[in-house]
Amino acid sequence: MTQQALPAIAITTGEPAGIGPDICLKLACHSLPASLVFIGCPVLLAQRAQQLNLNINIKNFDPNKPLSTHKKGSMTVFAHSTDTTVYPGVLDERNSRYVLDLLQKAVDGYNAGIFAGIVTAPVHKGIINKAGIPFSGHTEWFAEATHTHKVVMMLACEGLRVALATTHLPLSQVPSAITEDRIKEVLTILHTQLQKKFAIADPHIFICGLNPHAGENGYLGREEIDTIIPAIQKCRDQGMKLTGPLPADTLFSPTNLKAADAVLAMYHDQGLPVLKFKGFGEAVNITLGLPFVRVSVDHGTALDLAGTGMARENSLRQTVNYLLKMLKVPL
Known about the structure:
Number of strands: 12
Strand order of the largest sheet: 3-4-2-1-5-12-11-6-7-10-8-9
Largest sheet: 12 strands, mixed
Radius of gyration: 20 Å
Shape: globular
Helix content: 25-40%
Number of helices: 12
Structural class: alpha/beta
């Protein structure tokens, strides 16, 4: 692949008080077969590099000039200044708009034909909401920003992919959110994206029940009987290869996972604890259904590690590699 053919990847640096800047700086110390553009505050990044004792050559991104392949020890930065001074580990709601502006710059860059995909460092939902800006997560934000009717959140690590029927909802709201239309829509997106983005011709999807023991024939809840099973059957009628609903406590057995190309969990903390136990620090978060490929790390802002040098860039590096594989770039 020629240098000109290598994709340009936008990497948003995330919550400035967290480890996003740290892991981005550490990622810049590696060679990667892509053009990387980090979106963030160059002053903050230079200060954090000094704190971490990293010698990074920070260069301003010029959209009118051709990008070169990323070289270790360098960092091309699409500059956007923070709204107030940043102290590692100390959240400040005044920088909440800055965090979302980074995401918007990435989307605008994709729309302008500059970026082939987007990688996001972690943000802090609580401080953004404290600033009076409704925000439930990257997944929902990107869906709204791109006018995408429905997206699916999926995390992946070696040997396991877990998609979610619902994302960042209080547990009390999950049962009413599990509708037949939602299950059909999520399964359709998941099935199609496994074919298109992962080159799986006939994906086999295993599906969790909502209730313990998948409802146990209605004795522990009727959502499986009234909602989930009818949705699954309608998707099977369209040619999808589906197994379930199965009890979540036994679905994630090695035998089942060998046969599954992906698992659909009904809610966030049903499927993700298993995936993060299996691959934490090496897993990636993928938003399916967007017009571009968007991936993220599998962890949060880790405020206690910011500026200490202890934050590891493994998940971010894996995230970039995963995105490049989805873009069919040889590694």
